[in-house]
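Page 47, continued from p. 46.
Same chain as before, 539 aa.
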Amino acid sequence: MNGPCSKIQEQILDAFLEPSASQPQQALLSHIQSCPDCAAFQRDIEQQIHSLACLDQTLEGEMPDRISRCITALGQSHPAAPDHNHPKWRSFMLTHLIKISSAAVIAVAISLYALLGPERANPGFPTIIASAEAAENAWFHGQQCVYINNEITVFPTTSGQQLGFTWIPMCSMKADGQLRMDQLKLTVTADAYTVQDQAWYDPATGRFVRQLGTDQDLAFANAYDGSMVYTTAMSQSGLEIQKQMITGEFVAPDEPAKFFGLAAGLKSGLDEKSMMILDTQKDTLPDGATVHVFKVGTPDPEGRVQAYWLFRIRDDNKTIAEKEFIMQEQTQLLIRRVTTEYVDAADIQWDLRDLASREVKPSQDTRVTVSPDMVVANISVQHMIEKSDFETYMFAQAPPWCDTVKITDVLDPASPGKRMFIFTCRAEDKRHLVLVQSPTYNKMLGLLIGQGDLVYESPNGFKVIGGGRGKWMANILLQSAQHELKDPPSEDRIGFILESPEGTYPALAINGPVSDEELHYLIDSLMPAKEWLQASKTE
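Result:
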């Protein structure tokens, strides 16, 4: 912040960043209106804070709106950017980027942990979630058709309304019998509303129907009638029912609760050894039933828990009664079991033909939508290249101490419509590796590298930043990949932010110490995915 207007620009920065500051003086406003450089400086700050607000759901409420009322931006095609090394600016950016990174990586970690769940090293170990899953599954292994009805209540939280929506993972079944991981996207409105999640399952035949929607909208349906799998989709003309003949390898789910139960699509990680359980309490439901309440989440670098789930498990039958999602101490979602009962299978239309006549049209007022393929496991490098809109990188070969590299394609929760890519390599000595490439990380991690130290600069143009909050981020990355890695994060884990030649910022975690030679070998082997793919075709 140098030049003839440096003091004025310091005052502008103070006006934005000091909540207790008084109203800008008229002399400052007059100067801004008459000075293109300072007007551009002010507008650039507004734009950067707005960009942060798009990522950080809490930021808008903390911005002093007096600024937007009393400072008018002047037109300027090339604004003069504020000095990102200025102590006040760095402090502001780091404070909110830590919030953003916490929310983003925790969302990914909880989602993947929930969708995929850790493989338990000792299946016989008595776990809370195992007991709850067993109790849930018992309903689906009787002689009669079972009907369940869950309610998802969406609350009008401050952060939710600013972002416009909230979401949870959801499962559906494909024609090959495999699980498809989807995103159930729920618009946050001024009033609370409820989504009905209903399912019918016939143990004798494996047939099922699942429907989700509000009183006004049908959001999604998935069914199997013994020979065909049916899935709904919304087109410009309205609701479409897509059907596929089952494939030869099709097998009806042997654990239907994974598809239709209250925990479907959202395993809790309620292992008694899990690091995600933060607290356990006793409580009573409105119907008088006693429950144990498990608080499940991950602290941010400051030790704060910004987002967590409360799982209420009944003491009488050990089933999950409710799941409540809380962010910044406001309940965003409450999922509860309303009905579980046996019904007559003869009354159910397993092919969704009862929906064919329904007039369901796309609308801007639709509150509930489904985005398919929230998580796609074991993708190819070609798939990653096709789905990414930024330069991605691949290891020329797997690290010597690790197994084959596996890539998972995931919706980037903090960058709607974008995809993130999670590399996992399992190691026999438990020094597992996780590398994440993500649009959100590309936006935010570059402004956090000042919290660490440059530990290596590779001949291929990569910079490696260590220290700082690397261990915390490594914990999140390793935790999100437990399904592949099989082991929890270790105490001697390490994490790095990488800066690529193209200005992207992959995040790297290793579940244990590595030598300088091992780290250098690993980073030196990174190459653009397009080049890797081309080289693999010529071999």
